[in-house]
Input
Amino acid sequence: MLTPPSRGWHKPIPAAQLTLIFLAGLTAMRFLPLAALPLVLGMIWVAPPFGHLRAKLTRNIYCFQPRRQLVSLGLLYLTALPILAAWQVLLQYLGIPFATQQPAVEMLQQASGWRLTVLLISITVLAPVLEEILFRRVLYDLLHRYCGVWGGIILTSAIFAAIHLFLLGFPMLMLCGVIFQLAYLRSRSLTAAIELHAVFNTIGVITALVTAP
Output
């Protein structure tokens, strides 16, 4: 069943508190990216309903299963490729302009030295942890109360895709959001979603660096 974990840190949380944490984290991601994760974790640590976050994250921190993760991502790519092709044709037919690369990819390909190091850490470590907490845990917990399980999954994934500001990749990012949410709900551990997200971003980073002009 697609039910959130019933023990540990997944407890009923006031909607206002969830909204505040999500908006604060999203704002920090936009204007203070390096401070976003400490901010969100700090808000969660001091909030009583989130009291067992530390235990929930660390209890399953070593459950990484590379074969399963790679199979999941392989199926994701195979599913997304025809969807992306159809989406690109539709955008071109409608005359809607779109970028062919994410802004983060362009920054990554142009960076060097310490800037490249910071970007690598941000994309492969900080972003997966922060985004999974904000979207899979906080935003989904808020939306599924009003829209049901699948309504919450679809809306959370759509918002997750939209905040990346990459129109061409919207279907892929939304599908990623669905996969990450299902990983969280089926494994009953946020760590599984974080790991999957981190592997996905790492593959993207390697691809971007190898194909850099």
Notes: Residues 113-162 form the longest helix (50 residues). The radius of gyration is 17 Å. Confidence is low (pLDDT under 50) at residues 6-10, 46-64.
